[in-house]
Amino acid sequence: MVKKIDDLNFYELLEVDLRATSQEIHKAYERVRRIYEPNSIALYSLFSPKETEKLHQRVEEAYRTLIYEENRRKYDATLRERHDLPEMVTPAPRYQPRMVPPPVSRQEEQRSSAFEAPAQPAPVVPPARTPETVQLAPSSIIEFSGSVLKVLREQRGLTIRNVADITKVGSRYLEYIEAEHFQKLPARPYLRGFLTLLAKALGYESDRIVNDYLKRYDAAMGQPR
Amino acid sequence: MIELQDALRKKEIWAIGGGKGGIGKSLITGNIGICLARLKKKVLLVDADLGGANLHTTLGIGVPEMTLSDFLNRRAENIQDVIIKTSIPNLNLISGAQDFLDAANPNFAQKARLLRHLETLDADYILLDLGAGTSFNILDFFLFSDHGILVVLPEPTAIENAYRFIKSAFYRRFKRVVANQNIKDLIDAAMDQKNTMGIRTPYDLIERVKGMEREVGEILELEVLKFRPKLIVNQVRTKNDIQIGFSMKSACQKYFGINLEYLGYVEYDDCVWQSIRSKRPLTIEYPYSRPARCIERIVHNLLRKEQLTLSMLY
Q1: pLDDT digit string (tens) for A29-84?
Q2: Same domain for A141 and A38
Q3: CB-based contact (8 Å) between B210 and chain A?
Q4: Does any CB of chain B come closer than 8 Å to the CB of residue A47?
Q5: ipTM of this predicted structure
Q6: In this complex, do A32 and B254 lie within 8 Å of one another by their Cβ atoms?
Q7: Nearest-by-Cβ selection for B154 from A31, A41, A45
Q8: Fold of B12-155+230-312
Q9: For residue range B70-119, what is the model confidence (pLDDT) as tens digits?
Q10: How many domains does one find in chain A?
Q11: What is the pTM of this model?
Q12: How far from A158 is each of A81, A207, A210, CA to CA, in Å?
């Protein structure tokens, strides 16, 4: 499909994939900016100086939009409204997992304390969010077992895959952690690292979660601390 | 020697053009031909630069007896009669017209006859060395070929001509697929950059055509996708010069909507002019020089239908 330059969306302008990481976007910007700078020899006779200037500005705008997660999310939403995301393979772009998960609101925390209640599908988080901060683990939770971690994860609308993307911990191990398949988990020091990452991914201070979980681990495996 | 895919048994016609004169079209054509011949491909070089033929000189062959003009003017009935064997095995040449002034402007019937005869020849690759400029003859040869290759130098003049060449070839291709005279006139008018209808880019043109006849506009859109010229940047001196190929690729994508394939670059080196002076082909005289290596790499890309990617640079 032939598109007018003015109609190119920011992704097309920077020649990046819709699921490009911010690093890729930065690289692409560095490259494209150099192509469309005034006096660029490769554009000679193709674009007038005015057009080049305009293109240059749009490239800058595209970069400023896509490099910030918040702006990019808003921009993606407008694109989706215009049905201008044709190359989208999956409805959920992969960059979403990279963002820090949203903090849980008070009500949700209360619900998580009563985690025996059937885990409901995660509430859709409104797009405008306050800056994410790491929370202390809610004191209402008595012990962080695998199933609690699972509920916490699901409340945030994260799949195992998402968490694996954020933490770079293999999804298999994440499943074992949640299912408390202690036998299959790696040695204790590694597990500690995994748990720390997992806690951070869920948006909590890691200390309590890690210690709680390891206590259960030790009890099951019969190892002294 | 490089092992290359030999699945290709079908004859392919490649045309090498570029708009500007003196940018190394003949040199690159000749040396690509030699590289292919060394890979045991049957290669025929055709000097389609009908006004200023000198492909034979880059190959170190003296003024040939039989040339393309003999064929065009039917002094030679069969194209076989004007084929000259070179000293390199597998490499044959049809030299360009030398004498006839008219031969520089063959009419449609002559061109059709030439192309028809070329199709019957026994060769793996036929390379057409086009002349400078954007005359209809040159454009037609370029469009007729399986792969059109553009040569540019990292200089504004050459780049300007390359874009003009792409644009001319592009619009000529458009004109071939439409029947409606009004649309043909519109395409002609659009060629003029300062036209009064506000048609600046091919996109504007297609929109306008769609307004007239929707289906024709859609056909033109398809043509845009099918048009995939290839690019070689010659006389590269710095890394920035190599970058120009990628930049042109990007600019073509945005301006024309076409996919320009960046085949490769040829480094600047004194050995190139030395080989021309000595009338011996570069890849034979200086086979291990950097430009010769670059040409080998281009042949590689051509055969594998690959192109340069940014990651190769860094």
Answers
A1: 988 988 888 888 888 888 888 888 888 999 999 998 998 888 898 898 888 888 76
A2: no
A3: no
A4: yes
A5: 0.78
A6: no
A7: A41
A8: Rossmann fold (3.40.50)
A9: 888 888 888 888 999 999 999 999 988 666 555 567 788 888 888 888 88
A10: 2
A11: 0.71
A12: 24, 21, 20
